Amino acid sequence: MGMRVVVGWVALVALAGMARANPGDLSDIVGSSAPPLTILDPAAATRCAQKPGLCINAGARSTISVASAPMAAAAGTADKQSKAAIVVPRFSRAASIAASDGTQTAAATTPPEDAPWTLEVTGTLKRAAWAGNALFLFFDLEDPDAIENRQFTALFQAPLKAGPKVAARVSLSPEDGFRPGHTYRVRIVQLINGKEIVLGESDVSLL
Question: Is the pTM of the predicted complex or chain greater than 0.90?
Answer without folding.
Answer: no
